[in-house]
Amino acid sequence: DAGITQSPRHKVTETGTPVTLRCHQTENHRYMYWYRQDPGHGLRLIHYSYGVKDTDKGEVSDGYSVSRSKTEDFLLTLESATSSQTSVYFCAISRVGYNEQFFGPGTRLTVL
Amino acid sequence: VEQSPQNLTAQEGEFITINCSYSVGISALHWLQQHPGGGIVSLFMLSSGKKKHGRLIATINIQEKHSSLHITASHPRDSAVYICAVFVAQKLVFGQGTRLTINP
Questions:
Q1: How many other CB atoms sit within 10 Å of the CB of residue A5?
Q2: Which of residues 24-63 of A touch B (CB under 8 A)?
Q3: Which residues pair with B83 in a beta bridge?
Q4: What percent of chain A has a predicted confidence (pLDDT) above 90?
Q5: Contact across the interface for B30 and A106, Cβ inside 8 Å
Q6: In this complex, which of B41, B85, B90 lies closest to A98 when CB atoms are compared?
């Protein structure tokens, strides 16, 4: 299994609070991704990174920001959580952009 | 990206086929498996022809914009959601998934 961990694995928070999710990899892969998975929508890309300090938006980036200051860590921040951001969040990594992606275990976030 | 069927129930030992169709030109296609516990595992990435891993076989026809995932001699442990995803501009676009249940 690819060395990818996500923290926390479960979080319950209240509307309006900031939340940061962490993805950590030990594979030294260049690309890292944040997805959300919702019933009826499947997996959707939030943001991705193609190197340290290099990030770009996905299809559902509104309300989310990311940072990557080290190869191994990719942070997803919800500046002010809303109930619509209740979801399961997956991090993924790949060696290059068109390469096979490996997924972390997921974080279940509930915003009350 | 369209997958069919959305749900599939079969008996142990049956031959299973899950289909994936897409409408744009792609460079590669990814098949993933999501276990009932939620973890997502990469099964195959392919850009042409066929790949085989154990009882799983994946095929792709780039001209027809279609891929299939086959499972031979299905087993209850194959019960999972199977997800097709295509690479478009270096990003994955996912199908909705096919929920497979194999009864003993």
A1: 13
A2: 33, 40-45, 48, 58
A3: B32
A4: 88
A5: no
A6: B90
SS3 A77: strand
B33 neighbors B80 (Cβ within 8 angstroms): yes
Min distance B75 CA to chain A CA atoms (Å): 22
Asked if A100 and B32 come within 8 Å (Cβ–Cβ), the reply is no
- Spatial distance between the Cα atoms of A94 and B83, rounded to a whole number of angstroms: 18
The tens digit of pLDDT for each residue in A36-87 reads 999 888 899 999 999 999 999 999 999 999 999 999 999 999 999 999 999 9
Cβ pair A86, A69 in contact under 8 A: no
- CA atoms of A67 and B9, how far apart (whole Å): 43
Nearest CA in chain B to A91: B40
Q: Residues B7-48: pLDDT tens digits?
A: 999 999 999 999 999 998 888 899 999 998 789 999 999 989
Residue A1 has pLDDT above 60, yes or no: no
